[in-house]
Amino acid sequence: MSLIILTKLKLILKMMTKIFFDTEFTGLKQDADLISIGLVSECGKTFYAEFTDYNFVKCDDWIFENIIKKLVFNDYPKSGIIISNDPAVFRMKANSLSIKEQLEKWFSQFDKVEIWSDCLAYDWVLFCGLFGHAFNIPKNIYYIPFDICTLFKIKGIDPDINREEYADMNSEILKHNALWDAQVIKKCYNKLMSNEMVCEWSTLRACKFVFCYISMARPG
What we know:
- By secondary structure, the chain is α/β, with parallel strands linked by helices.
- Helices cover 41% and strands 19% of the residues.
- It has a 7-stranded mixed sheet with strand order 4-5-3-2-1-6-7.
- A hairpin with a 2-residue loop joins β4 and β5.
- α1 packs across α8.
- It starts with a helix and ends with a helix.
- The relative contact order is 0.16.
């Protein structure tokens, strides 16, 4: 019994930090370029960056109206700038190489990372492409990403459900901002997992109680 509890506690210590991310890009096509990227950790630390080296020619009218016009740093120079260097609230506008380097530094503050996104077929490929290859992503990132739409399906909810309404985070102004969308994904995840979290917390508390009891009862 004590071995099972000790194993459980060791697993708890090794739990990965969940990071929810979203990207905006030039279109649903093979040669798409990143326009922006937003990430938020389960503990609330955020990273947001806008790219200066994407190809405008690839953008259609919808992209211009719904993404590019809504970019936060449109008034900042294209030469690149770090707006906030705080690891808890990192903001920048720069080319892909500079953003990649800052992302590596930002990820380094976490021990192990588990990535979550939404319908991430394009997002994940573009994310890996930012590092040159899927094998080149930061070593602390688990190589298998997870998709919130699959979690909706598992929970018996239509995967096409309006995410903002489900998360109670409606905002036409902020919609399609990469960081805002990442925060919506996080809120959806937390809501979907709320029942499991209650059960897991009860289990952990029970494990802790039994572990303490065994430690106290064990001969000196």
